Amino acid sequence: MLAVVGTIPDEELPLVAGPVTVDGQFLVIQGHKVPISRGTAGLLAAAATCLEVLRKPAPFAFLVGDIGRGQGSSRLYEYLTLNLGRYQFSTLTFHYVLPIVDWHNRVLFAVQEMAERPRLIADAGFMYVAKMSGQAPEYDLFTPDAGELAFLADEEAPHPFYTRGFILHEDNQVPELIARAYAYDNAARHLLVKGQKDYVATKEGIVATIAEPVTEALEPIGGTGDSLTGIVSALIAAGFDIVLAAILAARVNRVAGYLAHPTPATNLREIVNQIPAALKLVLKEHHGKGK
Amino acid sequence: MSLRRFWQRKPKVLAAGGQADQGILVFANTSEVIRAEKVLRAEGWPIKVMGPPPGIQSGCDLVIQFPLMKKLELLRILTENRLSPLQAVPVTGPLLKPVDLFQVKDFGRYLMVRAANMKLTVDKETRMIVNVSGGGCPDVPYLAYQLVGQTLEAAPRPRDLGHTVCGYALQLAFEEMERLCSR
Which residues fall within 8 angstroms of residue A173, CB to CB, at 6 or more apart? Predict the structure, then answer.
């Protein structure tokens, strides 16, 4: 089963832990309705949609309200530290959480107390803190965009805001940045770098690039990275090998974006709505290749 | 995982800079840094918002660099504005310089500005903010919710609502967008 850890921009939301379902424009968890928009809600909507198509259990989530003050994130870190050991998940995805190094390290210790170590995926704030703590290689997958990859490649930057100018990304430098991130042990075992061209990489190098279809308008749309992380998390939880899951997820996200006919003003929900069609199409394409 | 390796990892030492006459103000959280910057800039203080030296980095940090000789005067102004830094100390290690490069992409009707990891997109015809993307701190989805659908003139400033380094980066993108759209 997939579990997702993150925050929701609503300070009224208490800490909740439970299965998540999609109900129209909302996620439902423990009786709370959360609007589907960018951020962890977008990730969960994409993951839940995929898992439903794949006929797998709905994702489990640990969510709390936080608008950046950090109180919610601190409660979430504490809860995970105290309780994670009694849960069992095949895949655990960490997302929008205020980066705090000390708490991150405690959560990683709590993961070790789980009966079976889940595949660990990190994106957003949790990826930042995983890198800053020096523990990136403990993770199975990071899903940075090109700017965040530059941050991973800068061994001195504690946050993307401090990435040094000479490392700052250009898309044509992605292979070099991937190599540099691995050289300094600042990358997870697998990377899915999202951008004009998506890259799947390991320490050994780039194993795949996904460039089609191209939909320029997706770049400014908030949440398209979140949906990609949700899709790849769902595929890994469904049993796909990490490299294959990353390749398929990149393709599904691109096809869903293409089918939504987006403009830079499009809302993430319109893209999530296209995920079932995109996933079926990409799986059919994949199975066709296998024959 | 090797526990020994886990705890032995330390932030790496950064390149040195000439900051002998400079001090830093350390606050409990980034929200207070953002408020203090606003107060001090309004009073004309020559301050800079920077990344903390390695010894006090905790994850999502900003500090304010200030002329050390003016410490007392500056602390008095902060106190008058109900701001209490945790520390006001000389710079003991190199500070991190925030990203100061902007990337601009023109989509025809829409213009996107990226500052560090934050992207802001505006409809050039209506000056309406149509999307906020990037970032990883919890105030980013909140800021997106508050800004999207508002014009540049009517939108709240990310500096007034944000609490993290990502929120601060969005403010920089916002200011650059205002500059570009005022041409």
Answer: none
Residue B147: give its domain's CATH number. Answer: 3.30.390
Q: For B78-106, what is each residue's pLDDT tens digit? A: 999 999 999 888 887 778 888 777 889 99
Distance from CA of A29 to the nearest CA of B (A): 19
pTM: 0.89
Q: Is the pLDDT of residue A291 over 80?
A: no
Domains annotated for chain A, with CATH where assigned, are 2-290 (3.40.1190.20)
Check pLDDT > 60 for residue A172.
no
Residue range(s) defining the domain that contains residue B23: 19-90
B158 touches chain A (CB under 8 A): no
Count of beta carbons in the 10 Å neighbourhood of residue B127: 17
Give me A56's structure tokens.
Answer: 């797998």
User: What is the chain A residue with the closest CA to B169?
Assistant: A161
Q: B111 and B77 in one domain?
A: no
Q: Is B165 on the interface with A (CB under 8 A)?
A: yes
Q: What CATH number has the domain bearing residue B80? A: 3.30.70
Same domain? For B125 and B75 the reply is no
Task: Provide the shortest C-alpha distance from residue B49 to chain A (in Å).
Answer: 11
Q: Which helix (H) or strand (E) holds A130?
A: helix A124-132
Nearest residue to A259 via CA among A278, A244, A241:
A278
